Amino acid sequence: MNKTTKLTIGILSALAVAAIALIILNNYLENRITKALEDNLKGTNAVYDKVDVNLLSRKAEIIKPFVEIKDKTLKVDAISLNDIHLWDYISNKDIVIGELKISNPVVKFYNSDRNSKDTLKSSENKKSSKFQNKVLVKRVSVEQGSFQIFENDSSEHRLFTKINSINLEQVRINSETLKESIPFNYELILLKADSLFYDLDKQHELAVGDLEIDNNKVKITEFQIIPKYSRAGHQETIKVEKDRYELAIDSILMNDLNWGVQNDSLKFENPVTRIKNADFRIYRSKLPPDDTGFKPMYSEMIRKMPILLELDSIQISNSYIKYEEQVQADRVPGMVEFSNLNISMSNLTNIGLDRNDFPKTRVKANTDFMKTSPLEIDWEFDISNREDRFQITGSLGALAASEMNRFLKAGMNVEASGEISSMYFNFYGNANQAQGEMRLDYNDFKVEVLRKDREKKNKIISALANLIVRNDTENRKVHYKEIKYTRDETRSFWNYLWNLIKNGALKSFL
Questions:
Q1: Between vectors from CA 461 to CA 457 and to CA 463, what angle results, nearest 5°?
Q2: Nearest to 365 by CA among 343, 338, 396
Q3: Phi, psi (rounded to 5 degrees) for 9
Q4: I want to staple 397 with a disulfide (CB 3.0 to 4.6 A). Which of 52, 358, 374, 486 is the partner?
């Protein structure tokens, strides 16, 4: 046997030994990684069709896993792990994965009272204390899927959203992150979802056309609050007065949203929030009994919210509000409307309520009242103030009585004639009492009381009403500085403001 032959045989033998060693090592590591994956899956009570690991291509795949933990289920077509860093796992048990792909996940939550927070917290702490590995996934991608929440064992969704895609980068999991409400850290998120639905209450549901999150930028389109019933059907579902809402918003934009968890409460921070083309219609029937429950001021509501907010600026543009009130069943509802509505709000926050430099919330609005009269509002309140102190000023341009009659005629069986040339008010107070001033300029103002048919005038009562009105009221400019009103705590802030304005008007006319 010559040297060349010996060398060839030696090389082939070495290659054969290396190949056999590689196959043995590959099988060993594949079995080890497969067993580790299977053990982890069994630890979460998961079932699956197959776990496939290929060391040479550094890939692993879990086919059709299904996980059920307490009141949560996760069903996935496939989970693929690509670019597995073997040396990190062999040397120090760290798990480093280049890419994790999840195909068509279906996540279901069933809300129930079977598990207390303490039980959940102790379970989480127990899990985190056992978890000694460090996990880094450089890229996570979710393709298609859905997220669903059910109430107890009901088959009806409390929440449903269709996920188009989710992409995360630099996802890290360790024993410390597992103690947090969000059990992982990440550096970048891209999310696209549509068909979001949420069951708000017995009368309303919430829907979103599209939701896009590009790291800290959020865009929501076709945001809606939809009534479940017609006006007549709505009345059959309530025992006391309750508004029926219809809300449609073209888009909501947040330019730099940061969120997290602080003291078990969700926390949202954003410098500028833009709401475009909102259309809000409110209907209330006065036929059911009054809701005599306590109505907090807006400052108290925000102060006691279960979530933490710090929204520096909220801009609402080109919007519309219509309020209708049904006083009697056989009458058309009284109506007021605000068109071309633009609102600028600053310092909406309930974080750090005890700090000395806590900012006041300010709301500035301009709109066309009843489509004809320019109205401007400047409203300021202090969310940190336990007395709920506020100040609100407003100015109204020329308003014809014919526009006022759209509310007065249906709601109060009164018809006015003439014109309010201008109105200005400035009120300040707290949750119990408010006071202030009002200026009113009007021309040829007269009142007619209608008969029950709402068309014919009751001449005798109308004459008496106009006798009560000041003889010189037909053309007047008045300024009253001592307008006071004690709030009815079973009524809203807007009822509070309306009564202050009404008291000022009565002083002007009587």
A1: 90
A2: 343
A3: -60, -40
A4: 374
